[in-house]
Specification:
- The longest helix has 17 residues.
- The protein is elongated, with a radius of gyration of 24 Å.
- The two termini are 44 Å apart.
- By secondary structure, it is of the alpha/beta class.
- The relative contact order is 0.13.
- The chain folds into 2 domains: 143 residues, P-loop containing nucleotide triphosphate hydrolases (Rossmann fold), CATH 3.40.50; 92 residues.
- Helices cover 51% and strands 13% of the residues.
- The chain binds adenosine-5'-triphosphate (ATP) and magnesium ion (MG).
- The site of magnesium ion has 4 residues, from helix 3.
Amino acid sequence: MAERPHDIDATMAMLAAEDYVCGRALGCVAYLSLALGKPLFLEGEAGTGKTEIAKALAAGLGRRLIRLQCYEGLDAASAIYEWNFAAQMIAIRTAEAAGGAERGALQDELFSDRYLIRRPLLQAMEPHAEGPPVLLIDEVDRTDEPFEAFLLEALSDFQVTIPEIGTVRAPEPPVVVLTSNRTREVHDALKRRCLYHWVDYPAFDREMEILRARVPQIDARLSAEVVAFVQSLRDLDLFKSPGVAESIDWARCLIALDTVSLSPEVIADTLGAVLKYQDDIARVRGSEVARLLDEARARLGSMT
Ligand SMILES: Nc1ncnc2c1ncn2[C@@H]1O[C@H](COP(=O)(O)OP(=O)(O)OP(=O)(O)O)[C@@H](O)[C@H]1O
Ligand SMILES: [Mg+2]
C-alpha cells in the first residue's frame, strides 16, 4: 500500500503520476478529503474528470476502487447486498428432490455467505488487505431523495446490518468520492458531510497538459489547435459543450487520420468526436467552422 500523501503538492504529484492533471484547488480538496477522512463531492460539466480522479486516487494510493454507479430507481438492495434468490431456489429444489434434508440446516445454509451477493457499499465496508478502498459513488444526482437519505446514513456510520448474518463495520472508513452532473440539486444534508468542489473546464494550459498526459504521441502544434478550437466551441451557446473527454477523443481521431494541422475539411469530417447533438453539429458545420478555426488560431497567435 502506498503512503497517504502528506500535503497538497504530494497529492497533486501522486495524481500526476497516474496521468491525472489537476489544479491546486482540486489538489487541495483531494488532500483534505484524505487527511480528514471526509467524502469528496465533485460537481461539474460532463467529461471534466470527476470520475477519473477516483480512479487516479485508487491507483495512486494502491487501493481497490469500488464503484457504485447511480441511476434512477437505484435502491438499497442493489447498493448494499441481496440474497441470490435464484440460487436459493435451486438449493431448495435440490434438497427437496434428495429428500430428507434437515430443514433447519438448509435454512441456515440458505442465508449464509454463499448466497449473499455483495453490492458496492458492502464491499467497501469489508476489510481489505491493502487498506480502505476508494468508494466512487458516481452520478448521485441520478438517484432519488430516499436513496440520498439512505446514503447519508451509510456515509455516517460505515456499517451495515444484515439480519441473518450480523453487522459489517468498516475497520477504517473508505475514501469516498461522490460525483454529480447537477441534473438536479443534491440535498444540502448530504453535501454538508462532504468537501465540495466544482470541476470546471480546464484553462488552455491545463488542457494542453492533460492532452500531453493522455495522448502523448500528439504533436504540440496540433494539440494546441485542438485545445484552442475546443475552447472556442465552449464559448458558443451549444446544447452540450465538449468536455476534456471529447478533446482527448478528437485528438486520437485526428492522429488516426494522420492530421498534421486542423483544416475546415478535417474538422467537418470529425465533428462527431467533439459534438454529440445533431443541432450543435448543424450549427457549427459550414461557415462557422472556418470562423471558429480563425478564432482559435488568433487565440494561439495572441499567446506566442
Ligand atoms: N484532469 C484530468 N487529467 C487527466 N485526464 C482527464 C482529466 N479530466 C478528464 N480527463 C480525461 O477525460 C476522460 C473523461 O473524464 P471523466 O470520465 O472523469 O469525466 P466526468 O467528469 O466523470 O464526466 P461525466 O460527467 O460525463 O461522467 C477521462 O477518461 C480522462 O481520460
Ligand atoms: Mg463521470
